[in-house]
Amino acid sequence: MADQTADDRKPSLKRRMTIMLIAVGLLIGVIVGWNAMSAAQLKKYLVAGGIPPETVSTMTARAQDWQDTVGGVGSLRAVRGVDLSTEIAGLVRRVNFVSGADAVPGAVLLELNSDAERAQVQTLRVAVELAEITLKRDREQFTVQAVSQATIDNDEADLRSKQAQLTQAQATLEKKTILAPFAGRLGITTIAPGQYLNAGDKIVSLQAIDPIYLDFFLPQQEISRITRGQPTILTTDAWPGREFKGKISALNSTVDPATRNIQVEATIANPDRALLPGMYAKVSVHVGGVQRYITLPQAAVTYNPYGASVFLAQPAADKEGEPAKADPNKPKLVAAQTFVTLGPTRGDQVAVVKGIHEGDTVVSSGQMKLRPGTPLIVNNTVEPRNDPNPKPQEQ
User: Fold this and answer.
1) In angstroms, how far is CA 319 from the centroid of its own chain?
2) pLDDT value at residue 327
3) Domain boundary among 290, 308, 325
4) Helix-, strand-, coil-residue percentages of the chain, each rounded to 5
5) How far apart are CA 149 and CA 142, in angstroms?
6) SS3 label, residue 46
7) 296 and 286, same domain (yes or no)
8) Where in the sequence is the domain holding 192, given as residue range(s)?
9) Tens digit of pLDDT for each residue in 289-336?
10) What's phi and psi for 281, nearest 5 deg?
11) By the number of CB atoms within 10 A of the CB, which of 4, 79, 122, 132 ranks highest?
């Protein structure tokens, strides 16, 4: 029985060996065929130019209007902002506002218990009235020499004293009522009726935020380019994709000797109260006039110690310099290196002042593997970023 089982296994092993040999043969054939095709392709280009082709992406150089800017970061600040408090202690009788509401100038926000002060004012008013009557009567008697001048002087002094006491009592009474000193937005309060407040205790924050200030710093070498009235554009991560326009309103009178930076104040329009004091923001200041530059992605430029350069994709030429005739064995485009003079940068873009012309076909990626005369295969499926205002990709 054991011999029969071994005999049955032999055909199965033979089939497996046959399948493996066939698979190995097919694999070898594929490799040989691929190498033959690659060799033929390489030979075709070697015959044409002596250099194997490289795959690159290209773009057409275009001129754009370019507004030079100076950037900075800063913090937003209210045009007017205070933490309202009371000058004198007292028990809260009424709270006449809600947290987060808008207040108008002179609006009554909070009232303290003022019964004692009102009674004192009433008492002093009566005292003033009595002093006025006494002075009037003594003056009439003075005309008939019934009283002396000293009596008149004492009456006038007493009247002025009573009036001063009344004015002081009225001022104390007014301090029991907290008014909004200007228009703005109220913050969050925890004050409630019946609560006792000491002098100086915070009641609520009041911020005037339309417009709103942005304080930021710039290096001292930018002072000559910054003047009052220059337009600014503010962005913040609190409002992605939104720009807030404003203008420079003030420059500090001194430069910080530790950092050599100057503080700049910009006034930003904020009609919908989207910007709040304390927020972090980025600002761009327009400097100079609008220029027209040829712009390229910064990734298209090769930076070398001896200068910056770009590669142009140009039609291939024959040995005499004439355009190459239609020949499937010859490349249509070859790389030509040219040195460029660069200007300012803006996001992913760089301005080219000299070296290329509008309409030139520029290699935008893949130029690191090129040298002059390299045949080119153009594939623009993936192109480098060319955004003047790039944003984080996760946004």
Assistant:
1) 56
2) 55
3) 290
4) 30, 40, 30
5) 7
6) helix
7) no
8) 87-202
9) 778 888 899 888 998 888 899 999 988 765 545 555 555 555 688 999
10) -150, 155
11) 79
CB-count burial class (<10 Å; 0-12, 13-18, 19+) for 265: middle
Cβ burial, residue 275 (10 Å; 0-12/13-18/19+): buried
Q: Do 103 and 179 belong together in one domain?
A: yes
Tokens of 164: 């001063």
Domain match, 105 and 198 both: yes
Which of 353, 335, 336 is closest to 344 using CA atoms?
A: 353
Domain termination residue (choose one: 202, 223, 258)? 202
- Whether the predicted model's global pTM rises above the 0.70 cut: no
User: Does 345 lie in the same domain as 283?
Assistant: no
Residue 158 and residue 187 in one domain: yes
Neighbours of 267 (CB within 10 A): 16
Round the average pLDDT of the chain to a whole number and report it. Answer: 85
Of 234, 322, 231, the C-alpha closest to 283 is 234
In terms of domains, do 220 and 254 share one?
yes
Contacts by 115-121 with C-beta closer than 8 Å and gap 24+?
A: 117/169, 117/172, 117/173, 117/176, 118/173, 120/169, 120/172, 121/166, 121/169, 121/170, 121/173
Alpha-carbon torsion (302, 308, 314, 317), positive or negative: negative
Q: What percent of the chain has pLDDT over 90?
A: 48
Three-state DSSP state, 231: strand
Output the pLDDT for position 66. 80
Segment 236-292, tens digit of pLDDT: 999 998 999 999 999 999 999 999 999 999 999 999 999 999 999 999 888 877 788
CATH assignment of the domain containing 221: 2.40.30.170
CA distances from 85 to 130, 169, 174, 180, 320 (A): 37, 20, 14, 11, 90
In a domain? residue 105: yes
